[in-house]
């Protein structure tokens, strides 16, 4: 078995696709899988590609594909250049293919589509043949050095600012920012990440202020450490924004190319107040100064980080390779059964997980003594229907509880992190709804309360025809009528 990753990149194209493909390469290679990274472009002297088997070939040529891929190969394609014909050849000749797409650029043949951005709801993939789409924060592709990071503290003042306009800085913004921002803020240290050629070009054009340090060809660990050490970043709105989210570094994104618009839309889904600049705005420098002034407020930066807290955990590459290589239905055969007294500890542990408490009405940790009383009362409550989610081995994977009052049942659901990224949450919820409607004939509608900030859960409920009716206690109230469920 071999995985072949097809992409393009270089001086005139950029390194965004190369960066995320290298992450997928390293994830697969770490499992002992043979991997080729086949690149159309001019890739030379890029430190983060050290140790990667790069094949510089024009894979966009049909003859190359006919001669170099087989039915035993798995393929990953990350391209803005490939035609529909090229995708068809790869799909037909390989065992399984996965397409990386964050702009909805074409209709794809059979395979898996991955949108590695925060949100893909504004992109229509419905015309692609098989409809398999992996999207959301759990599929953001990052290098392994960016996994499960936490910033120790937020500085009272902004003392260090990171500037990243891409290796080639196609809009020439870096010298503009140096001359008009850095020179006027000598009490702030500026770290500028750029390519070697771009750094030489800037140094030949302008004199460098003493408060600037240039960095180029950083490896993943160096980049991660630099981001964590800075209080704020000014960045092009490309792949780098996801590394900044993972390191919990507040940032001011600048749209420098049209294909970054979807990244910006995704940010607004989670933070409607996100400040975004555009390189061609006539007031660009004035707006950047205003943004820096806003971000200088520590309370603003704390609030900013809270909106994105734990959003990107860095395990997207792992989940994507898992999905490419495995059949999720074989890995998890989901079952629902009624609660038993011996489930008390698993329910307690799950209920006290930080990610469960964060989106609950009561955010405080639960005491064991209180949990025992509550659990026993629920077991005896005839108006409560309590299901446990298990796999084929009867391992505990979550809980779904329905509180029945007259003709309505209010649902509460929490699932194990083992299921994160598996795309099974909607299936599990749907299965439980079907079960409650069949077992409790008096129930005519299901009520759910979802945190406004829990975008993923909101989309799952809405995908099952739940309708938002009003808000209560800072939670959205959604209702699913029985007749609406059966039109899904």
From TrEMBL:
A GO term for molecular function: hexosyltransferase activity
Quote the InterPro entries the UniProt record gives: Acyl_CoA_acyltransferase, Glyco_trans_28_C, GNAT_dom, N-acetyltransferase
Q: Which Pfam families match?
A: Acetyltransf_3, Glyco_tran_28_C
Annotated N-acetyltransferase domain residues: 334-488
This chain belongs to the protein called GNAT family N-acetyltransferase
Origin organism of this chain? Isachenkonia alkalipeptolytica
